[in-house]
Design brief:
This protein is of the alpha+beta class and about 300 residues long. It has 3 domains: about 40 residues; about 60 residues, Antifreeze-like/N-acetylneuraminic acid synthase C-terminal domain (Type Iii Antifreeze Protein Isoform Hplc 12); about 120 residues, no CATH class. Strands 3, 4, 5, 6, 7 and 8 form a 6-stranded antiparallel beta sheet that branches. A hairpin with a 2-residue loop joins strand 5 and strand 6. The longest helix is centred in the first third of the chain and has 39 residues. The radius of gyration is 48 Å and the shape is elongated. It starts with a helix and ends with a strand.
């Protein structure tokens, strides 16, 4: 009897183990199928593992491959890093962003990167600067500046100079150096390239050739334009003069005085009228002495 009970317990345990094994196998099989299904729904996409600035040549250390949902895959994305290495970034690519063809310079246009930064409808105008004009070298690409010109009022009045801000909130595209010939010797000249409209480029060309220009750096977030009347030497000196102090006026209160009217005394007899011949009286001043001369 005990033997049959033991065999029954063993058979029951074996059945339970078999059922548990089948359940675990089925669970793991479904999990693997789900993983395979999810894997089939994703695709590898080349992404930036570091920030890639505009105009830089992409190397292998800057690109990685990340799984991307197939239905969200960018249209012109790369599935491997091989086609991306050696290409030039046409836009800033942030870390984690997919590298797409539209953000890269075309293979047949590897030069002329500055033209890619010029906004639509704008022109790139380069001006010569020095340490003073260029704000001590602190003007860098993507800065915002105002342009001030100092020029004569007219060709006949060269001594009369006037300064006027004629361009405001101008984007700096590039800042660098060029080599020019001066006295048959190479000279390094600092330049700044500005993004201006065609109308502004004409004004800037006239100002840089006819007068002296000065770049004034402004806050990047300050886009407000301020109209100024300009300044000349007369206005500059008059603004430095001290205005005479205005003395406060003292007000004196007037008081009315009332007096009792007196009874008039009886009039005295009128004296005889004496006729005096008319003449001229001249006042003569000699040094500190004063006298009168009468002429009939």
């Amino acid at each position: 009897m005990n033997r049959k009970r033991i065999l029954g317990i063993v058979a029951f345990a074996f059945c339970l183990a078999l059922v548990a094994s089948l359940g675990a196998y089925r669970f793991l099989s479904e999990k693997n199928q789900m993983a395979e299904s999810a894997k089939l729904q994703t695709v590898g996409v080349a992404v930036a593992v570091v920030d890639i600035p505009l105009g830089s040549t992409i190397n292998a250390n800057q690109i990685g491959v990340s799984l991307w949902p197939r239905n969200l895959q960018p249209k012109d994305a790369f599935t491997t890093a091989v086609p991306v290495v050696g290409r030039i970034a046409m836009r800033d690519i942030l870390r984690g962003e997919p590298v797409v063809e539209s953000r890269l310079v075309p293979k047949d246009k590897s030069s002329g990167l500055l033209s890619l930064k010029v906004p639509a409808g704008m022109r790139a105008f380069t001006v010569k600067v020095n340490e003073v004009v260029g704000v001590g070298g602190f003007i860098v690409p993507d800065s915002r500046v105002d342009v001030v010109v100092t020029t004569a009022v007219s060709p006949q009045r060269q001594q009369e100079q006037v300064a006027k801000t004629f361009l405001q909130n101008i984007l700096v595209l590039a800042a660098g150096q060029v080599v020019e010939q001066k006295d048959n010797k190479p000279v390094t000249v600092n330049t700044v390239t500005l993004a201006v409209t065609p109308d502004e480029s004409e004004k800037l060309a006239l100002a840089s050739n006819d007068g002296k220009i000065q770049l004034v750096m402004r806050n990047f977030s300050d886009a407000q334009k301020v109209e100024t009347p300009g300044s000349d030497k007369g206005g500059l000196l008059s603004s430095m003069r001290q205005k005479p102090p205005v003395s406060p006026r003292k007000t004196v209160a007037s008081k009315a005085v009332f007096r009792k009217a007196s009874v008039p005394a009886p009039a005295a007899p009128a004296a005889p009228v004496q006729v005096v011949k008319a003449g001229y009286v001249v006042e003569v001043i000699k040094g500190g002495k004063r006298s009168e001369e009468t002429f009939q």
